[in-house]
Design goal:
This protein is an alpha+beta fold and 414 residues long. It has 13 helices and 18 strands. The strands form five sheets. Strands 1, 2, 3, 4, 10 and 11 form a six-stranded mixed β-sheet that branches. Strands 14-13-12-17-18 form a five-stranded mixed β-sheet, with helices on both faces. Strands 6-5-7 form a three-stranded antiparallel β-sheet, with helices on both faces. A hairpin with a 3-residue loop joins strand 1 and strand 2. It comes from Methylobacterium oxalidis.
Length: 414
């Protein structure tokens, strides 16, 4: 039985197999990560990953879908979306993407994969155990539909802890923070070289908690604060004291909802709103984005500017594809101003985890950080402030969870 560990992330995906140790498989060229994106073009097989993004950017006619994981735990999972002349359920879209990942891994390793340990967030849905169960059930059914005969799950922060544990020399109490594209997950785990060899680790896991906030939420809030006003958000209607309806802007700022806008009914509504708007030129920009199906270009530009502003202190968000010369300036202070509340809400989960484990902050030896959003300085600062005595360890941003899942897959298959 060939087993693998699969980290299907909101932004990126990895898959690992045991080859003399846990090894992540090259899924796209030399890359072991592949963006969680799929592009449907008429008359062609779907493209996934970077190739999907490239086809969209190059203007190939078709439909791009990103942040696929975020529909798990929402009503969208059972809804359909137009793809060319047909409508596909979102669960079928996820299945096509993961089938492509699985096929690439099998081609790379030369082995058929029939057993998988899937990573999952601590909570797909906040404060909704039934929604959580349904989301895991949906992911299990999808995995089985693409050929996995044995499907099990492991919390993503626990998987990251297993990766971190490979390199430690003594016993530690670690808080694992996995801040990804869609969720922020935490575990407090007792680790040591001796414990690493044990098959049963339940007693070493002192706490698990999480919240459905991740990098795409930072993108959404930043977009609503800096870009969507340029397209009419918050602008007045000509009559009365009403503002332009904001639902279009929220969908356009949310990765998983962008495709909802691409239909004749919405275009007619936007045109009617533009005619009655106090600033019709702004609504004209919104109209241009939706008519040209450039919502993902907009979201990608925001994501890129977020990363640049966090790394260098300032970024210019070029929007020439909307209107010649249009741009927005974002600096680190603005990034913190718009998204600081999200960072605080993430850090609050550290306190909840400590209470669940029954330990104080001073008992934590190491804070292990993984996931792309730990690269945001104000997120990292909010987390480290909760554990001022802990040693901060930066893991493999995109690979720690996948490596840990691979370790777990090998153990369960033994």
């Amino acid at each position: 039985m060939a087993a693998c560990g699969l980290d299907f992330g909101t932004s990126n995906t990895t898959l690992g197999c045991w080859r003399g140790g846990p090894r992540l498989v090259r899924l796209e060229g030399e890359h072991v990560t592949i963006p969680s994106a799929i592009f449907f073009a008429p008359g062609r097989e779907p493209e996934i990953g970077r190739a999907a993004m490239a086809a969209y950017v190059e203007g190939v006619p078709g439909r791009l879908m990103r942040s696929l994981k975020s529909v798990l735990g929402s009503t969208l999972i059972e809804e359909t979306t137009p793809v060319g002349r047909q409508r596909l359920r979102f669960r079928d879209v996820i299945a096509r993407y993961l089938a492509g990942v699985k096929a690439r891994a099998e081609a790379e390793t030369g082995s058929a994969l029939d057993s998988v340990v899937h990573g999952r967030p601590v909570h797909f849905v906040d404060d909704d155990p039934e929604g959580d169960r349904k989301a895991e059930d949906a992911l299990r059914q999808i995995a089985e539909s693409i050929g996995f005969r044995h499907v099990s799950f492991q919390y993503e922060p626990i998987a990251a802890a297993l990766d971190y544990e490979q390199g430690i020399a003594r016993e530690e109490l670690a808080l694992i923070a996995d801040i990804g594209g869609g969720t922020s997950d935490f575990s407090i785990v007792r680790l040591s070289p001796e414990r690493h060899a044990r098959a049963e680790r339940a007693a070493d896991i002192l706490a698990n908690d999480g919240v459905r906030i991740g990098g795409t939420d930072f993108d959404r809030v930043l977009s609503l604060g800096t870009v969507m006003p340029l397209l009419g958000l918050g602008s007045p209607m000509r009559r009365g004291d009403l503002a332009v309806p904001n639902a279009y802007f929220h969908d356009l700022a949310t990765w998983s909802s962008i495709n909802r806008l691409y239909n004749p009914k919405t275009l007619r509504e936007i045109e009617e709103t533009r005619r009655d708007a106090g600033r019709p030129e702004l609504l004209g920009r919104l109209q241009a984005v939706v008519e040209g199906e450039r919502g993902h270009s907009l979201a990608t530009a925001v994501e890129t500017a977020k990363i640049a502003a966090s790394e260098t202190g300032t970024a210019r968000l070029e929007l020439g594809f909307v209107e010649g010369g249009l741009a927005a300036e974002i600096d680190r202070d603005g990034l913190v101003r718009h998204t600081g509340d999200l960072a605080r809400r993430i850090a609050e989960r550290v306190g909840r985890c400590l209470r669940q484990a029954g330990v104080g902050a001073e008992a934590i030896d190491a804070l292990f950080l993984t996931g792309g959003s730990t690269g945001l300085p104000h997120v990292r600062a909010a987390l480290t402030a909760c554990l001022p005595r802990a040693r901060v360890v930066a893991g493999d941003t995109f690979g720690s969870v996948g490596t840990g899942l691979t370790l777990e897959a090998a153990r369960r298959a033994a």
